[in-house]
Specification:
The structure holds two protein chains of two kinds. By secondary structure, chain A is α/β, with parallel strands linked by helices. Chain A is 31% helix and 29% strand. In chain A, strands 1, 2, 3, 4, 5, 6, 7 and 8 form an eight-stranded mixed sheet that branches. Chain A is globular. By secondary structure, chain B is of the alpha+beta class. Chain B has a single domain, classed as Beta-Lactamase (2-Layer Sandwich), CATH 3.30.450.30. Helices cover 44% and strands 21% of the residues of chain B. Chain B contains four helices and six strands, in the order βαββαβββαα. Chain B has helices spanning 10-26, 53-73, 112-138, 155-161, and strands at 5-8, 31-36, 41-46, 81-85, 90-96, 100-106. The longest helix of chain B is centred in the C-terminal third of the chain and has 27 residues, at 112-138. The chains are: A alpha/beta, B alpha+beta. β1 of chain A pairs parallel with β1 (5-8) of chain B, so a sheet runs across the interface. The structure holds guanosine-5'-diphosphate and magnesium ion. Guanosine-5'-diphosphate binds at residues 19, 21-27, 54, 78, 81, 102, 141-142, 144-145, 169-171 of chain A.
């Protein structure tokens, strides 16, 4: 839910990184965190297990600068990917303005990718949202691994509504900012409509 | 109030702030924060500098969301108040107008009883402010004599955000 504070002249938007476990959602946020100037970011919070798996969420507040005199803030969240964390995953989608779907390019993860998109669709619906109208960017991550499934094949399996799609290697930062920009733009364009 | 947007205008913002300031004084609290349930900071009063308000907002909303989930699991509608007791500082969390969260941070200079009592009064004050916000939103109120700045956003404006 975009929160516009006319008194403080601020716009706040919420982006959620969604996708199967170990696909690289947390890595996307870590890269963005490391590459962003200190005055443009807040603290990154990771609620993780001891084994570094996301337990509840990661959170990174970003300041993108001003638009029409309003300070534009994006709050980035990731969800825990494991199937059994569905209850927490649903909570994080509350009030979402845009979604980045991080798909894993490993052949053995295709089923998990497909399953996770369905899960996203149904969890959004529980909040009264429709993936059809939700700003969305699709990311094919781990393009660097041997035997990565060809992008056009992944596209056929995972594309939902011809959303902007990006190849990425989150560990090296490839495609990470392009993906973020794409979804952020879609969210801001939505502001214009309402 | 649309699902997709919450807008706070100058007048309501001042009212919320003044309720928070009074609550902070009456309850003898260190700081009080008003947070929306999706994790965004709305307003605050007191010694707010010593706290990271953005992190506080996100974690508090996560805490409330998780506790709501727990309540539903055991067949309760919600747990209306959360209290976390520390060595020195304590946190009192409650819901305002169903959509916002009031967070009070206090120490031995206050007490749970006092905080509870003062939170009640401040909540009903703020309920009314939120009602007023809803009415404005329904009437399509577009800010104090200014047109919505966002209907005019251009692609160039958006690109400029990402230019560095
Ligand atoms: N080879 C490769 N590994 C990656 C890439 N992105 C993430 N990883 C690794 O995949 C593992 C899971 O990443 P993580 O971000 O924790 O996944 P999450 O569960 O989606 O948050 C970590 O060991 C990452 O280092 C990538 O683009 N290429
Ligand atoms: Mg993770």
């Amino acid at each position: 839910m975009t929160f516009i504070n006319y008194a403080a002249r601020e716009i706040n938007c919420k982006i959620v990184y969604y996708g199967p476990g170990l696909g690289g959602k947390t890595t996307n946020l870590q890269y963005i965190y490391h590459k962003t100037a200190p005055e443009r970011k807040g603290k990154m919070i990771s609620l993780a297990t001891e084994a570094d798996r996301t337990l509840f969420f990661d959170f990174l507040p970003l300041d993108l600068g001003t638009i029409r005199g309003f300070n534009t803030r994006f709050h980035l969240y990731t969800v825990p990917g494991q199937v059994f964390y569905d209850a927490s995953r649903r909570l994080i989608l509350k009030g979402v303005d845009g979604v980045v779907f991080v798909a894993d390019s490993q052949p053995e993860r295709m089923e998990a990718n497909v399953e996770s998109i369905r899960n996203l669709e149904s969890n959004l619906r529980d909040h009264g949202f429709d993936l059809v109208t939700m700003p969305l960017a699709l990311q094919f991550n781990k393009r660097d691994i041997n035997g990565a499934v060809p992008s056009d094949e992944m596209y056929r399996m995972l594309n939902y509504k011809r959303e902007p799609t990006f190849e990425a290697v989150a560990t090296d930062g490839l495609g990470v900012f392009d993906t973020l920009k794409s979804v952020a733009k879609q969210v801001l364009v939505e502001l214009r409509k309402k | 109030m649309s699902l997709a947007r919450m807008e706070v205008y100058e007048e309501e913002f001042r009212h919320l702030e003044s309720s928070l300031r009074r609550l902070r004084l009456d309850a003898n609290a260190k700081a009080v924060f008003l947070i929306d349930r999706n994790g965004q900071h709305i307003a605050a009063a007191g010694d707010t500098d010593q706290f990271d308000s953005t992190s506080l907002a996100s974690l508090t909303a996560g805490n409330v969301a998780a506790t709501d989930g727990l309540a539903k699991l055991i067949g309760e509608r919600e747990f209306s108040v959360l209290f976390h007791e520390g060595q020195r500082d304590h946190i009192h969390i409650s819901i305002v107008a169903r959509r916002a969260i009031l967070l009070v941070i206090f120490d031995e200079r206050s007490s749970l009883g006092l905080v509870r009592l003062r939170v009640k009064r401040a909540s009903s004050e703020m309920d009314r402010v939120f009602e007023q916000m809803d009415q404005k939103a329904e009437m399509g109120f577009q800010g104090e004599a200014e047109p919505s700045p966002f209907s005019e956003i251009t692609d160039e404006d958006i690109d400029a955000l990402f230019s560095e």
